[in-house]
Design a protein that fits this description.
alpha+beta; Rossmann fold; D-amino Acid Aminotransferase, Chain A, domain 1; six-stranded antiparallel sheet; 24 strands; binds adenosine monophosphate; binds glycine
Length: about 450
């Protein structure tokens, strides 16, 4: 039996832990709070700061796991895999040098450019203000400004949404220079976004079913950006607005980026490469890479994994993913997050929610909630996710929706995620962009 140290305590880590356990592993968890779901799965659970690598190392030395699985971006970007490797523990998570794929947007843009990989928009990385005004003028009214560092998902501002014109663009770019020392300014892309996550062992890449996330807080893609309100995937492992060739393009980009990373740094990326892509009128473009599973996207794909997850993890570490057959069930999934009223800006905290019976075909994953004597208590972030799993997106949506509706307490969710109506809008948008007949 494999011993695994899971680091992190969100819903993403709950599904990672569940899938490891299903593959026969014995689970130990280090998290900053007690996740009620992981608590049930784990032999032992240590709480402590995710920034305290000394404490994590001490705990790891006590557990002596076969390997560690690091869920969240901050410890990965901060080099926790390096710290664990120093004491002989391998991780399913990249070393700091290659975790730059997520922690530095400028590094990734330049890597893609240098190795002549398709997918970059028109972009420039700035270390100071020289030439900035001219580049804004070149891009015109459609631009994006990105701080070049991990900013907890808040470093990106898009013209039209957050920035009214060049003056605001320039002011925000200056702010980024102050905060991060580097700023990326790029062309704003128009199309439909999708997440393609791959298992990567340094040389080989094996993709998972493609997923679409919903970042905006409110129905109709309105309101502030969030960590992700929910997501869906289709039974054929494609999305209704994508062509198979789009998926091929995204897959090729990830494969080539993994190879380029090795060539550039001499270090193999071992873990999850999560590409945020966008299908545009002129093909697939890369928005960014994350060096970890997506949250919520992990909840769409891991419950469908038919292969042994612990074996997949070991193949990632050993570099022989090509020898494994990695298979996912041909099912559709819809994931919806319940979040506290007021989320994300003024989320209520400390209030109780009641969850009824979870029906067959639905999985429940805990995120920021505490199990107390009084019951399940909200923290101020995403609380609980429900994932409907069925033969079609419509059926999966109904399963997730009816379960969300049965929860009592001051929470809300997006009713439109995975509905036929919202999906039809996305298909129509792509159709218009491509001037093609819509795909079913
Ligand atoms: P991030 O915080 O890096 O995940 O980016 C947040 C969001 O910004 C993405 O999900 C996109 O919606 C948007 N975004 C980033 N880069 C671009 C781009 N070049 N064009 C259009 N939207 C973008
Ligand atoms: N689904 C967004 C993220 O994990 O970054």
């Amino acid at each position: 039996m494999k011993k695994v140290l899971l680091i992190g305590n969100g819903a993403r880590e709950h599904v990672i832990g569940e899938t490891l356990k299903r593959s026969g592993a014995q689970l130990f968890c280090y998290g900053k709070a007690k996740n009620p779901g992981i608590l049930e799965l784990a032999e032992d659970y240590h709480t402590g700061s995710l920034e305290n690598s000394d404490e994590i190392r001490e705990y790891a030395l006590k557990v002596k796991p076969d390997f560690a699985f690091i869920g969240p971006d901050d410890p990965i970007g901060g080099g926790l895999a390096d710290v664990l490797l120093e004491v002989g523990i391998h991780s399913v998570a990249p070393l700091k040098t290659v975790a730059r794929l997520e922690s530095s947007k400028g590094f990734t843009r330049e890597l893609v450019h240098k190795y002549k990989i398709q997918g970059n928009p028109n972009y420039k990385v700035f270390l100071n203000e020289e030439g900035m005004k001219e580049f804004f003028a070149e891009l015109g009214e459609h631009f994006v400004v990105k701080a070049d560092g991990l900013m907890g998902g808040k470093g990106v501002k898009v013209s039209g949404d957050h920035l009214a014109g060049h003056k605001e663009g320039l002011a925000y770019a200056r702010e980024c220079l102050h905060a991060a020392g580097r700023v990326v300014i790029e062309e704003k892309l128009v199309g439909q976004e999708f997440s393609l996550m791959s298992f990567v062992d340094g040389k080989h890449t094996v993709e998972m079913p493609v997923v679409q996330d919903h970042k905006r807080a409110f129905e109709g893609d309105k309101g502030p950006n969030t960590g992700g309100m929910g997501s869906y995937s289709d039974a054929n492992h494609l999305l209704p607005f994508l062509k198979p060739s789009d998926l091929d393009e995204a897959r090729t980009i990830t494969h080539r980026v993994a190879q380029a990373l090795l060539k550039e740094t001499g270090c193999e990326f071992k873990g999850i490469m999560y590409g945020g892509f966008i299908a545009t009128a002129s093909g697939v473009r890369l928005i960014e890479y994350n060096a970890r599973f997506g949250d919520p996207e992990a909840m769409n794909v891991l419950p469908l994994l038919n292969s042994n997850f612990a074996e997949v993890c070991e193949a990632i570490i050993h570099g022989d993913l090509d020898r494994l057959k990695v298979e996912f069930a041909q099912k559709a999934t819809v994931c919806k997050y319940l979040v506290p009223d007021g989320y994300p800006d003024k989320a209520v905290k400390g209030q109780k929610i009641e969850i009824g019976k979870v029906p067959p075909g639905v999985k429940m994953y805990y995120s920021s909630v505490d199990q107390t004597d009084e019951g399940l208590i909200l923290s101020s972030s995403r609380a609980v996710a429900f994932v409907g799993i069925a033969d079609s997106i419509v059926e999966a949506e109904q399963l997730a929706e009816s379960t969300c509706g049965s929860v009592k307490g001051p929470v809300f969710h997006r009713k439109d995620i995975g509905t036929a109506e919202l999906i039809a809008k996305r298909v129509a948008m792509m159709h218009e962009l491509r001037r093609l007949r819509p795909l079913k």
